[in-house]
Predict the 3D structure of the following.
Amino acid sequence: MRRVLLARFGEVHLKGQNRPFFLRTLVDNVRKAVEGIGGHVWMAESRIYVSGAEDMDDCLERVRKVFGIYSVSPAVEMEKDLEKIYAQAIEMMKGVTGTFKVMCKRSDKKFPLNSQELASKAGERILDAYPHLKVDVHKPQTEMWIEIRDHAYLCNTETMAVGGLPMGTAGRAMLLLSGGIDSPVAGYQIMRRGVNIQAIHFASPPYTSERAREKVLSLAKTIGLYENGIRVHVVPFTDIQMKIHEKCEEGLGTVIMRRFMMRIADRIARDNDCQALITGESIGQVASQTMEALACTDVVATVPVFRPLIGMDKLEIIRIAEKIDTYETSILPYEDCCTVFTPRHPVTKPKIDKVEKEEKWLDAEALIEEAVRNTEILHIKE
Ligand code: ATP
Ligand code: MG
């Protein structure tokens, strides 16, 4: 008898012809997640199994964070001996209260009882052992699963996992990563769909500090955990911001600055085989996120811009930030380049032609060239 984990996958089931590719990637990703702690991974009958790790709780936590995994159950793998199976089921139901149901699945047709017989026999034994329990076949509080295959597998708890699609099955995108709450969450939402990401950060030293930069790199590291590290491009942005401040109408400063961010991110994305940009914008959250302002920034990108938080409330975003462990870092009070040179009265409904006219005061191409040339590339890993 030994402890194993039994992981279920969700949406991968739907993937038609690409199913083998998705499953192979998923199994590989689970393997990468647990190999460091001695986990051994295999797939059988639409489940992924993990055994062998010394610390199975740590192992479960790791498997739970693999995109594409829907839920994980700690299970027992044992010989197909009826009496031993009953005894094990009784042991696992110790301490359980309320209602339960035994669910059985038998793929080994040589096993002496069929699924229904096994379920009802095991149910009786459990009731004999714990008379305070009640059977509820419709909405049981606990489901005791017994599966008969090469071995017998028993489990009665299920932990929800992150879901989504296996990392590496959906291309690559460039995340505009600030030090705030929103952008790490936006990155996570897209990664969850199987997309590898890189991050780009605009820094304006000396107006933004070394600690602000460290904060961003720390956020990159946290989300990078989902894909074994992350490439971060740090763009020097001070010159551009100074020029905008000097030459352009103050109220349009923010939207012009954001258009420069987009252009540079777009250029670096294409140079790095990224097929889309990701931002943490949400309609109406701040002056630069009105429909009009979003329209002004959108038009300068040549690849699609994904804004997975566009329709979300701040509180919903915070809840995800807490779940993915970025919140505590995001609320550290260091400045972002967006917070320096902020116009006193930003135009909330900028018109594209007006913005374009103001930008004529700048040599956009030269400024972008210079910023891209001086961009620093880091690879951040746990
Ligand atoms: P966040 O919480 O992600 O910082 P925010 O609510 O502060 O977002 P803005 O400052 O307007 O909103 O930024 C909107 C989006 O622009 C961010 O979510 C991020 O994707 C991008 N962004 C802002 N500042 C930077 C920066 N310094 N470097 C890279 N991207 C940035
Ligand atoms: Mg911000």
Notes: The longest strand covers residues 69-78.
